[in-house]
Amino acid sequence: MHFTGLTALLAWILASTPPAGFPQGSTEIHALSESSVSDTSDDGTANVPTGNIPASPPARTAVISRTPSFQFEPAAEQAALFTGIMHAKRFISEAGTRDALHGRFFADYIDSITELRGWDDADGFLTSYIGHPMEGAVFHFIQFQNDPRYRSLVFNEGREYWISCLRALAFSAAWSTQWTLGLASEASLGNVQLHSSPGFVDLVGTPTLGTGWAIGEDAVDRYLIARLERHTANRPLLMLVRGFANPTRTFANIMAGRRPWQRDSRPGLFGTAFAERAESVRTGQTANDWNRLAAPLPKTQGLYPEIAPIELEASAHYESFLGGGSCIGGGGQGAFRLSDSLQLVAEISGCLIVNMPTNQSGDSLLYAAGPRWTPRAAHRISPYSQLLFGGRKVTHEILFPEERKRLEDEWDAGQLKHYPMRSDYSIEHGANGATLVAGGGVDINVNPALTVRVANLEFARSFVPVVDGINAQRGVRFSSGLVLRIGTW
After folding, report:
1. Residue 92 CB-density burial (10 A; 0-12 exposed, 13-18 middle, 19+ buried)
2. Within 13 Å of residue 214, how many CA atoms lie on the same side as its CB?
3. pLDDT band at 42 (very low <50, low <70, confident <90, very high)
4. CA angle 475, 481, 486 (to 5 degrees)
5. Does an H or E element contain 187, and which?
6. What is the arithmetic mean of pLDDT over 289-302?
7. What's CA 455's distance to the chain center, in Å?
8. Residue 457 lies in a domain
9. What Å distances lie between residue 379 and 49, 117, 308, CA to CA?
10. What is the extent of the structural domain holding 130?
11. Who contacts 90 (Cβ-Cβ below 8 Å, separation ≥6)?
12. Mean local confidence (pLDDT), 217-234
């Protein structure tokens, strides 16, 4: 579901009605007491508190006010600026990326997209599982700071905080997919899939792990940084801690032209607000200031269905081929509900075949769609069964590192007209065929927004020939993941 319908889904989520318990219309949930102020005081504007910040803030209640809805235009501008900065870094540091700009733009772009297969790529652990999730977290915070209804919430501050995370996840998924496959992407500008191992790890990991990274920074901000602020008014120290202990939030602030240390949940570090906070620290009146928990918000029963109309899943897969060998990877699913007990499911997933010889790799790409039967969808424990039809692409690649080094040396010496592509120093064999996948599993519905897919077990029959000894004609797949439920919150 990364490839189809994401833009429409994003618009649906961001423009959705307020959470249960709030009136219809454009509203804002204020996370601050009346004596609290936002970081706009850093800019020297008003927003000055009317008195000292109390030791124990008054009980939090839902304050409803008319505010703008999600700010699409500035969010898109900030995300585009971030994307441009990442591309600028590539153009400066990667000669092959600069060279690829001289090729056939649309033809090479399409070739790059169609080359996508398997799970892993050639980026390494730090890039795939640290760097790219941080990229996803920057997109997350860009969405968050442009969402007036939720941006003043802090970590775990009630149900609305987690709704804000889901909205940011949708935004991050759309922009990280654009970064990988869009018209201004690694595929179009540099044709990265033609020069390195193409895989789905970035498409799945960047938004999902990025959201986890952002939630982690929120927790650090609430339980470490905010606690430090209760004990010191040392401005340089607080600027450094706010900036470096929340690096992706800091970068998102910069993309918006805001001060790197800015927070929408508490006073800034300049102006009258900070002077009053410094006095409160000196007199010891801030003991419980920012360690608040959200008060229960009013709930309205019956506004939303118990059964989700739309579900999106990210999962990890292991498949054992009955003809020998196995593969590990992940993928995503989207499900549209036709009735209380019937869904239409679409899946795309990839996996890397393990235990291959040195300088050889193999992978499998599976794409399928079909019905899913969910007889107990409204219950906490929900078993299901499904039957999917589609296709499988199996690829085997042999790399020749000596030839790669020779070509790269010739490129460095100016003897080659263009930077060598992966196909210049490798041999690739592949096959594509129809696939039938049958199986089922068990879901646990954690809350209206989240489901844990505890276990999914399936048998896959693929009508694809053996590729250089890789026999993926019959396999048993096990997967587990998280499901985002849309329309129930």
Report:
1. exposed
2. 33
3. low
4. 125
5. none
6. 45
7. 22
8. yes
9. 47, 36, 12
10. 6-283
11. 97, 186, 189, 190
12. 92
